[in-house]
Prior knowledge:
This protein is of the alpha+beta class. The chain contains 3 helices and 4 strands. A hairpin with an 8-residue loop joins strand 3 and strand 4 (about 75-80). Residues about 180-200 have low confidence and may be disordered.
Amino acid sequence: MMEMFKKINAKEKLIGWYHSGPKLRQNDLRINEVFKTFTPNPLLLIVDVNSTDKIDIPTDCYMAIEEIKEDGSASEKTFLHYPSIIEAEEAEEIGTGNANQVDAQIYSHEKRLATAFNVKTNDELMILYVSSLVRSIIAFHDLISNKIENRKRNEAASTEEPMEEIAAKEGADAEAAPSSNTGAGDKETPSSSKNVKDGKQQ
Length: 202
């Protein structure tokens, strides 16, 4: 891997390694010893990928040193914090500036597109709302009209029933009157025949 790195980036020099931290870890000293095979004094760069700082780059740089204890006991290795500054080369600054301009243009287009999409979506939702409102009003109007029509029919039906009863009663009375006269005539027939008999006897 190192040989491939030298072939591709011949002008660059390996100075250390990094991890995403956010703090020093227990095995960092062991990994740092491995990197000594590539560079005598490797630097450890910790990059806090979860930082909320939008101004400074969240990095901390460390170098392993031998710490000599005052009590005369055996020394041990530890990390010493080094101040660090991250800067870009001229070519990188130009590329970064162009990238920022492109990003700004893309963001502007995205913002206008999002605004247009929101306006179109709001218009479509308004059309759906108005359509639903009109359908509800029409259905409510039809319901009221049906209720009014049914009420009129019920009132007309309740008015026609007494008229039919009166007409039926009058018809029954009219039929009963001739039958009573006929009965009276039938009763007079025997009396007339009796008079005839009396005349004969005289």
